[in-house]
Every structure is written in C-alpha cells, then in structure tokens.
Write a structure and sequence with these properties.
The protein has helices at residues 3-17, 46-74, 80-103, 112-127, 131-159, 165-187, 196-216. By secondary structure, it is mainly alpha-helical.
Amino acid sequence: MSCAGAVAPCSLWWLRTGAPRPLSASGRRIGVRLCSSGMVTDNINRATVHRILRVDHAGEYGANRIYAGQMAVLGRSSVGPVIQKMWDQEKDHLKKFNELMVTFRVRPTILMPFWNVAGFALGAGTALLGKEGAMACTVAVEESIARHYNNQIRTLMEEDPEKYEELLQVIKKFRDEELEHHDTGLEHDAELAPAYAVLKRVIQAGCSTAIYLSERF
C-alpha cells in the first residue's frame, strides 16, 4: 500500500470514531500523516496490544510534559542541556507511539488533558526544588516506566515473541533509553534532593496510579 493509501483509512477512522487526534509534546493536537509502520496488525491479541499502546502513549506524553515543566524552570541553567537531551528522546518516543496508535487504531486514554496539566506541574514543581529535585523526579519516573516496559516485554514474550517482534523491539529500545535517563539523573545528584526517598516514593505511587488508569480508561 502506498503512503497516501495508508493515510486515508487511518484518517477516516479518527474522524468516524471521534477519537482525539494524537498530541504533540507541547500539548497541541497534531495532524496524522504517516505511512504504514510495517507491523503486522492481523491475528494479534488486540485487547493486549491496545492496552499496551494506550498506556505507553499516555506515559510518553506525560514524560514529555514533565520535561517541558522542568525546562520552563531550569532551561537556562547549567543542567538545561542535559534535560533537553532527555526530552528530545522522549519526543521521539511519543512520535512513534502516535504512529502506532493510528496503525493499530487505538483510542487514546480519556485522561490525556489531565496528564497534560499534571505532568507539567510535576516537572515544574520538582524543578523548583533545584536541579537535584528535577533529577530525583527523572529517576523516579524513568525507573517506573522501565519497570512497566519490562512487564510488557514479558507479557508479549509469553504470548508469541515472533508475532510481536517489531513491537518488542520498539519497547526494548525505549526501555533502554529510559534506563539511560534514570542513570543520568543519579549522575546529576538526584539523591541529594530534599527528602529524596519520600519524594521518590510519592512520585512512583503517582506513576502506578497513572498506569492503572490509562490502561483502563
């Protein structure tokens, strides 16, 4: 199928279902314009794939909003380039999941507007504690996301690793980059943040709640 041929059915699906269009890292609706991902969409466990893509899309969107909040506070500081580099990778993650959401015709979580505000507030709020606070947030969030990706990898491997090979490659790649962000946070004094252990637990509890809700709604 040509690129144009692939776009038309996907675009019509978004219009017919009334589902929200994908969101960019800045929180704006974006137009859908892409070729087929090449992934096999037949003979898959659609319930599992839809749940995975819905929550991963929401998670990467939330991560983008967190980094946006951090950059709003610390963008001109010495740690600004470090945060920007991690944010750029998160933008790539979100772009890929935007594409997969269309390819597999997955409805985004209805909680996207809430994650938009909550993510930015978390990023900006922890950044106001200083670079250590921002990095503590990064460590907490990225550790939660990496653990979540590992759970998804196990689920797909147990079901059929060959059938889900391409999706597994995407998730594994993003998992490894999230772990890099986690290590970057530790290298930049995350553990020196005020009440680091408490802050980390609270943020990760929030991540667990976000994952639970985004999978289901």
